[in-house]
Amino acid sequence: MSKPLKLKEWLTVKDTAKRLSISVGEDVTEADILRLALDGHLTLSVYFVKICVR
Fold it and tell me: If you write DSSP's letter for every residue of the chain in order, what string do you get?
């Protein structure tokens, strides 16, 4: 695992798919990550940015 990856507190869905693909030795897509979350196997956190437009 690379040093920057160890320092990250969170991963994007795309990064998670890449990391899991390497770990399990088969292709894991972003859709697979979302399905795993919907099925309760992964927990996703979402950060919503408040944008004020005037």
Answer: --HHHHH-S---HHHHHHHHHHHHTS---HHHHHHHHHTTSS-----PPP----
What are the average pLDDT values for consecutive 10-residue runs of the chain, which has 54 residues?
70 93 96 96 88 83
When divided into structural domains, the chain yields a total of: 1
Residue 53: give the domain boundaries: 1-54
Does the global pTM surpass 0.90?
no
